[in-house]
């Protein structure tokens, strides 16, 4: 089988064009923060960000850097650190188009893309303002039962899925453990970019224990090694959230200058010091 | 043993509201519902299953984040908790923001799974400690999830109770109205009226929310505090200090 | 967490009522043959068998024993051993109602049940006689694109999913490895019955390597230990197919008496000798 | 080195038909297509990916049996093989049985994934060694999967070629007709006509199917025989004996 070549973070994110429909996972499923920083550094613009199904620091930073035109999400929050400052500011000054969703609708729309079906029905949502504001969603009658209205969602097929994982092998197989949503993202997306903590020897698929919890190489376009690649977010059992760094972000993100300074500090090695 | 703190009272009330459930799920950032569910499990002698999102130990999911929602649709979750930046008298909840969407002077994180789970889980408990007219409004500005649905809409689930820092309400789905069931010790019906922006049913005599008995209180302070610390260490520490 | 109790094979299959909608996996995904034998012994009748998405010896034996009224499948075959004798005989004498399907339709209909949606669209099938003979399937217009016909399938929600797996822990968690279709079956079904080669100590979900490849106990109604429980079929890397036993089956299954004799020999310890 | 056997010829033809594919999938019980695909991969210098159902080594699936079908719908499978108890001149295939369904005097296993994959995989190769009027019929008795579809039906995939023990046909989707491209050594156009129940285009001169060159033959007898033995040990043994 053809081995996948490892790239640098810069080359990895170079394949995310301006205007891409970019899918990113929720905070606990492996957020590629190092790659996000590289993406900001290259000055990406007009992203249509799909949060699977929510986001936090990553979405807020991309919005603060002026990289996002549209965000589809079920929530954006920095949890106990507070509401997302750049997200909220962008909504206030109307520089961001928000597509409010609900978690299972984002999953279902990705599952539709995974199955190559143009739409998928889903229960719930009828009578909500979430549905009322989604011109791209419809209510139809269940074709099998008269008088049973149900929402249908068009498939979400991301141009790019981007996430961080524990390890990959040299064939390009990525170990995902229980984080099946990154598998769903990769199945649904045209292109999948992965950062990993490390490369392991041997073939992950051949390991009877871990083999079932692998994203196979066929879905993976490129891999870059990023040690502590989810920092300052937590990553699995590898490292905890860097509370100090996020508190500092919350303070600085109140202004464009602060965001720029935060990014500059990051380039300057804040991570190394963490 | 000292008297139950406000938090301990809420934990005990939640455990009571969950009695008889086979499987209770608790969303992220929900320490008090999480502690209440773990207490209910303890009281059930282990018959109840509890899933705490964000926990390693109390979360069995192996199919990604979608599993919670699929479980709900399969009818395998009996109870869940929702909150809201605004809650109104029809049990509509708003997790998005105030004002004329999308121009929201105050924006909250978003609807999460509420627009779905509220429809499918039989016993949804609305939990919000803050009980003010800012939260308990006549009509929510944005319906993340409605309290009731038109006939014909598939809706096995919905609101069961509203628990706040002041009292406990039950919800009558047929009449689409809350009823004040009890007032927490140290508070009054008048205080609840003053701080509630919507109409609700109120019997002539509203009992006081019963405080947890000694063994329940001991369980909260020992077993439950330890159990919840895995997911919410800071909350567990506060629980100890209380 | 409440531990699941182990039962005997007899108790396990006692919870499969006559007339049940019973889902069973394809030959390579863990066929509960020992439980199937117990089911025949108890004289189950009028099963609606759903093969996920195909079957072989198991379906043929159940049909030969007179246990099946309806079979929904994409194929029934004993592979290199030939066509399924009892299946073919039952079709010839019209004692079996067949619902011919196609593999992805069975998976998709189970995925609909898994998601609690009443139906799911699926590409393909239009213009086939498979579709023409399925009164329970429909073609609708894609609600998002005019002039785009697409098949919609009603959800399949089995009363019982029955399969064999490598091992389970005492909590009732079942290790499935790469055999995700048994996970799908269990998600979709009301009741799931599992036979396993062995019980392992510890909690499978707590194992970071295997944790992602586990069917969690909440879906599992009962577990019985059945050593070599897939015999005479192959099971994973545990044991190969017993070619001699299957060849003997093919000879004996030409008559009802032969089937009865094969079952009697099985009871008498053919398996132990294998 | 001895001349290519009939089986080796078929393996080499299949490898040629797969040139340029990024990902080829091979169904269960398909040793010759499997060997052909592994040969094509070898010839591609490893650029081609091959999935062999039933193989442990050449199968990367981690999402169950549905993954093959999802991959096809995602556009991630370029070529696949289908057969048929009956194949007709419009490239319709029948894997179900003869006669008036469901009263099938001869019943085959069933349609498997054909009713789906034929629609979605761009380069489907129809492969059936037996080339008789029993198989190559004017009109199939049951359409497991149709050769062509009405305009408006989503159909990125379909028949590319028909390979039998006698010859190789290409399929023109616009005209909905097979064209005889080559006749295998030792056989003739007349023999093919006599054994084919449907009309097909036939140029004035039909070339002989080119035999594999020495290096291809060596690859089949060494590398490919070893590779395919993992999934089809008996076939590999027969390949060695040939």
Radius of gyration of chain B: 17 Å
Determine the number of helices of chain B (DSSP H or I, runs of at least 4 residues). 7
Strand content of chain A: 15-25%
> Roughly how much helix do the residues of chain A carry, as a percent range?
25-40%
Question: Briefly, what CATH class of chain B?
Answer: Alpha Beta
Largest sheet of chain B: 5 strands, mixed
According to CATH, what is the topology of chain B? Glutaconate Coenzyme A-transferase
**The CATH C-level class name of the largest domain in chain A:** Alpha Beta
Number of DSSP helical runs of chain A: 9
Describe the structure.
Chain A is built from 9 helices and 13 strands. With 274 residues, chain A is of the alpha/beta class. Chain A has 2 domains: 5-102 and 156-267, Glutaconate Coenzyme A-transferase, CATH 3.40.1080.10; 103-154, Defensin A-like. In chain A, the strands form 2 sheets. In chain A, strands 1, 2, 3, 4, 5, 9, 10, 11, 12 and 13 form a 10-stranded mixed beta sheet that branches. Chain A has a 3-stranded antiparallel beta sheet with strand order 6-8-7, covered by helices on one side. In chain A, helix 2 (33-41) links the parallel strand 2 and strand 3. In chain A, helix 3 (57-64) crosses helix 4 (85-92) and helix 8 runs antiparallel to helix 9 (256-273). The longest helix of chain A is centred in the C-terminal third of the chain and has 18 residues, at 256-273. The mean pLDDT of chain A is 93. Chain B is of the alpha/beta class and 242 residues long. Chain B has one domain (6-84, 112-132, 146-241): 3-Layer(aba) Sandwich (Glutaconate Coenzyme A-transferase). In chain B, 29% of the residues lie in helices and 18% in strands. Chain B is built from 7 helices and 10 strands. A 5-stranded mixed beta sheet of chain B has the order 3-6-8-9-10, with helices on both faces. Chain B has a 3-stranded mixed beta sheet with strand order 5-4-7, with no helix packed on it. Chain B starts with 5 loop residues before the first helix and ends with a helix. At the C-D interface, helix 4, helix 5, helix 6 and helix 7 of C face helix 3 and helix 4 of D.
């Amino acid at each position: 089988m053809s081995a996948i070549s490892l790239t640098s973070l810069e080359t990895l994110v170079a394949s995310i064009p301006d205007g891409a429909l970019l899918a990113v996972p929720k905070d606990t499923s492996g957020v590629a923060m190092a790659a996000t920083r590289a993406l900001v550094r290259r000055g990406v613009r007009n992203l249509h960000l799909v949060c699977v199904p929510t986001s936090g620091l990553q979405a807020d930073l991309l919005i603060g850097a002026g990289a996002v035109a549209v965000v589809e999400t079920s929530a954006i929050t920095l949890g106990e650190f507070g509401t997302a400052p750049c997200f909220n500011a962008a909504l206030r000054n109307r520089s961001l188009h928000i597509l409010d969703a609900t978690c299972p609708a984002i999953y279902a729309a990705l599952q539709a893309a995974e199955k190559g079906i143009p739409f998928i029905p889903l229960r719930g949502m009828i009578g909500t303002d979430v549905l009322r504001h989604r011109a791209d969603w419809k209510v139809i009658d269940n074709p099998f039962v008269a008088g049973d209205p149900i929402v249908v969602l068009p498939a979400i097929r991301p141009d790019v899925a981007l996430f961080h994982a524990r390890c990959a092998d040299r064939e390009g197989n990525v170990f995902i453990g229980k984080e099946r949503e990154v598998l769903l993202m990769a199945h649904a997306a045209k292109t999948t970019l992965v950062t990993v903590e490390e490369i392991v020897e041997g073939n992950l698929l051949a390991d009877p224990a871990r083999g079932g919890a692998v994203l196979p190489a066929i879905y993976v376009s490129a891999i870059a090694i990023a040690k502590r690649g989810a920092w300052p977010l937590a990553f699995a059992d590898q490292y905890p959230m860097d509370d100090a760094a996020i508190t500092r972000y919350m303070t600085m993100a109140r202004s464009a200058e602060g965001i720029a300074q935060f990014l500059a500090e990051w380039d300057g090695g804040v991570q190394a010091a963490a | 043993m000292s008297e139950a703190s406000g938090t301990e009272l809420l934990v005990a009330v939640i455990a009571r509201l969950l009695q008889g459930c086979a499987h209770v799920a608790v969303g992220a950032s929900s320490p008090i519902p999480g502690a209440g569910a773990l207490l209910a499990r303890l009281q059930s002698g282990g018959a109840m299953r509890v899933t705490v999102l964000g926990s390693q130990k109390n979360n069995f999911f192996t199919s990604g984040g979608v599993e919670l929602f699929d479980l709900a649709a399969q009818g395998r979750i009996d109870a869940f908790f929702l909150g809201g930046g605004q809650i109104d008298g029809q049990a509509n909840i708003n997790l998005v923001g105030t004002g004329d969407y999308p121009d929201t002077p105050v924006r909250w994180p978003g609807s999460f799974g509420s627009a779905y789970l509220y429809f499918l889980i039989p016993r949804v408990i609305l939990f919000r400690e803050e009980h003010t007219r800012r939260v308990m409004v006549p009509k929510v500005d944005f319906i993340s999830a409605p309290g009731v649905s038109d006939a014909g809409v598939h809706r096995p689930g919905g609101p069961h109770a509203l628990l706040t820092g002041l009292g406990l309400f039950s919800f009558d789905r047929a009449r689409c109205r809350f009823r004040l069931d009890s007032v927490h010790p140290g508070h009054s019906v008048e205080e609840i009226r003053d701080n509630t922006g919507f109409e609700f049913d109120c019997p002539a005599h509203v009992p006081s929310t019963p405080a947890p008995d000694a063994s329940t209180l001991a369980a909260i302070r020992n077993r439950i505090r330890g159990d919840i610390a895995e997911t919410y260490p800071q909350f567990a520490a506060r629980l100890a200090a209380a």
